[in-house]
Automatic annotation (TrEMBL):
Xref: InterPro entries: ABC_transporter_permease, MetI-like, MetI-like_sf
Residue ranges of the TM segments: 56-82, 119-141, 153-174, 215-243, 264-283, 328-348
A Gene Ontology term for the protein's cellular component: plasma membrane
Topological category with respect to the lipid bilayer: Multi-pass membrane protein
Classification via Gene3D superfamilies: MetI-like (1.10.3720.10)
Record bears the keyword Metal-binding: no
Domain ABC transmembrane type-1: 115-344
Species per Swiss-Prot/TrEMBL record: Aquisalimonas asiatica
Keyword terms: Cell membrane, Membrane, Transmembrane, Transmembrane helix, Transport
SUPFAM superfamilies reported in the protein's UniProt record: MetI-like (SSF161098)
Listed name of the protein: Carbohydrate ABC transporter membrane protein 1, CUT1 family
């Protein structure tokens, strides 16, 4: 029996070896092991999405605080204005009353009296603020930079001073017997040089500046004026420094004096700043609370003429513990301020926001 000789394995050509090697490398690459720290699902799309979400994660603390302390209180105040609620009794004591809180507030004579007091004090303190702040700022700009800076600091100091501290200082100044104001009037009345102009002082002393219903509004207005006139001066100084000096030089060449430069050059260019300053005055005076509260805190009779709508709101909320009515009054105050601002905006004119 003849044996069959074993066959030798087939010889691969150079082209076959190259193809086999290329196929093996491709298979190895298709099953590559992910790098350390990289997940198999991490692709360009997922990384791009992570990059686009990162800014929102950094902004999330702001949105959380904004929603907690601004958005939520607004909607809760709307909800609360339709309920009767004493916070001492807990949330379970809240009762739905519909529009009863608004009806009660709008028919309450104390609300309208406090609103009238607020408007009177706002006019007595707000109008002089701007009538004095505008020319004072114009004079400051004409001075040298060093004098302007020092005077600006002096004018602005009352604004950054504590309102409670300022009100208490004026409470001492207004004291009937020992107050600086009455003592100054007595000195002027007894002085041989100025006595002829103050003969009336002896008939009215002691003047009760915060105890008299006829004087309390003027006394509060003086405090508000003294505290906030510096703020308006700084606003107008900032506006005047943006006006090109070429306009003043051209006006002087045309023969304009200081008043004409102020009237025809400065005022038209200050319209946006005037609009901002007056709007802030309206909002601030309609929310006036600290000054009348400190000056009339122990004077029930005088507080009737010095009580602003914010003081009345505080009394309803924290003395009578009627949070539902207080919420309704706060929304009434909001709409009053919004209406006054809207009227002022349209009276001022849209083009008033643009300097000529």
């Amino acid at each position: 029996m003849t044996g069959v000789a074993p066959q030798a394995p087939p010889r691969l050509s150079h082209g076959d070896i190259t193809m086999s090697t290329h196929t093996s490398d491709t298979a190895t690459a298709s099953h590559a092991v992910p790098l350390e720290g990289q997940r198999a699902g991490d692709g360009p799309g997922r990384r791009k999405m992570a990059r686009t979400k990162a800014p929102y994660w950094f902004l999330s603390p702001f949105f959380i605080l904004f929603g907690t302390f601004f958005v939520f209180p607004i909607f809760f105040m709307i909800y609360l204005s339709f309920h009767v609620w004493n916070p001492a009794a807990g949330l379970s004591a809240m009762q739905w009353v519909g529009l009863e809180n608004y009806s009660y507030a709008l028919t309450d004579p104390t609300l309208w009296r406090s609103l009238r007091n607020t408007v009177v004090i706002a006019l007595l303190s707000g109008v002089p603020q701007h009538l004095i702040a505008l020319p004072a700022a114009f004079v400051l700009v004409q001075l040298g930079s060093r004098a302007r800076h020092w005077l600006s600091v002096a004018y602005f100091t009352p604004y950054v001073t504590s309102t409670i501290a300022v009100s208490m200082i004026f409470y001492v100044i207004y004291a009937p017997h020992s107050g600086i104001l009455n003592q100054t009037l007595i000195y002027l009345a007894t002085n041989p040089v100025t006595g002829w102009a103050f003969t009336w002082v002896a008939d009215v002393m002691p003047i009760r500046w915060v105890q008299d219903n006829a004087l309390i509004q003027y006394s509060i207005s003086a405090v508000v004026f003294w505290k906030y006139v510096g703020f308006n001066i700084i606003i107008y100084v900032a506006g005047l420094t943006t006006i090109p000096k070429d306009l003043y030089e051209a006006a002087r060449i045309d023969g304009a004096n200081a008043w004409q430069q102020f009237r025809f050059v400065a005022l038209p260019m200050l319209r946006p700043f005037i609009f901002f300053a007056v709007t802030m005055t309206i909002i601030g005076n309609m929310n006036l609370f600290d000054e009348p509260y400190v000056l009339t805190r122990a004077l029930e009779q005088a507080s009737r003429s010095g009580m602003t709508i914010s003081n009345y709101l505080y009394r309803v909320a924290w003395q009578w513990m009627d949070m539902g009515s207080a919420a309704a009054i706060s929304w009434i105050l909001f709409f009053v301020i919004a209406a006054m601002t809207w009227v002022y905006f349209h009276l001022f004119g849209r083009k008033g926001l643009e300097g000529n």
